[in-house]
Amino acid sequence: MGNDTALAFDADGAAFKGSVLLTTGFKAAGGVRLVAATIERNLECGGGQFVGNDKAVALGLNGAVVKGNVFLTAGFKADGGVNLSALQHAQKGW
Length: 94
What we know:
The protein is mainly beta. The chain contains no helices and 13 strands. The model has no long low-confidence stretch (mean pLDDT 91).
């Protein structure tokens, strides 16, 4: 999903009642933004592929609240940076 000039996925300020699964088979070109989003359970990105561009980092989580775990594990790939500034989470799995 996505292109070279825009975000692939923009969920700034969104509220997710469960887990967010951006795992094996997930590919985003153009950056994924979850800035100031709230995730009630886990954020799982193991195996996901994220590619940023000149307008967005590959994965932007600044100011997000994850009430479960954050997994940037096995096969996670981000070309173009990951922003975790001010991320609030219960535990890390990276």
